[in-house]
Design a protein that fits this description.
The chain is mainly α. It contains eight helices and four strands. It has helices at residues 3-28, 39-53, 56-79, 103-118, 125-148, 167-187, 196-215, 219-253, and strands at 86-88, 95-96, 99-100, 154-156. The strands form two sheets. The protein has a two-stranded antiparallel sheet. The chain has a two-stranded antiparallel sheet with strand order 2-3. A hairpin with a 2-residue loop joins strand 2 (95-96) and strand 3 (99-100). Helix 2 packs across helix 4, helix 3 packs across helix 4 (103-118) and helix 5 packs across helix 6.
Amino acid sequence: MSWHSVTMRVLGAAFLFMWCGAIVSHVVWKQAPLQGIGSASFLLIAGALVLLSADGQERKELVLAGLIGFAAEVLGVQYGWLFGQYHYTEVLAPNWLGTPVIMICAWFILIGYVKQLLLRFHLSTLIEVVLGATWMMVIDLLIDPVAAHPFKFWNWMEAGSYYGIPLRNFIGWFVVSAAILALQKLIFKKRNRENIWMRLIGVSIIVLYTACAFGYGYYVAGLVGSGLGLIHLALFGAQIKGALLNSTAKELTN
């Protein structure tokens, strides 16, 4: 067994353990695991799994997405651009320029996941960018209320109509995501391959935040997450079913 396979298995087991612990702690006990210790580690392990499962070009795309996302967060924290007035707590520390460095991983994990969702459709560049950015914005409708309030990753300094979050935050997510997706299309020409790890990590985060949203009473956000989960199931459930049917047919003919 290669070092890569061993590393992926060890990291995968660690991710699963922390994921289960996070759901039990937040949904059952209504508190952060170990009083918040490990949130950045969880994202770091998830990011490592995504990077290690990618090929050379995909890693470059992911790093680009993470750096652009991080730069946008810095602008948001320092100047209130793009997303509105907010500031990060120390939960995801270490912070640099007021922004947790681990947000690099958060951005490329979600961008990688969304690109996997769109991969099978062979869309034009414009449609893929718009649809991908819209998908990222909807994901933030799930993530932001939970991350800002019970998880205490950041605090909003201005009132908003969606769980206290300003609507321009979601417009900012759309704009930044569209810029990332467009630049990736412009710079990298080779079509991405299917990546089961990107899909699993992405949907596991959707499930985690959906469970926590319902657990803490953020029902609208929970319904958004449920919708995202159902879309994932519809897209990849049909694909898995087709693969199983083809495999069965081959066995019967042999």
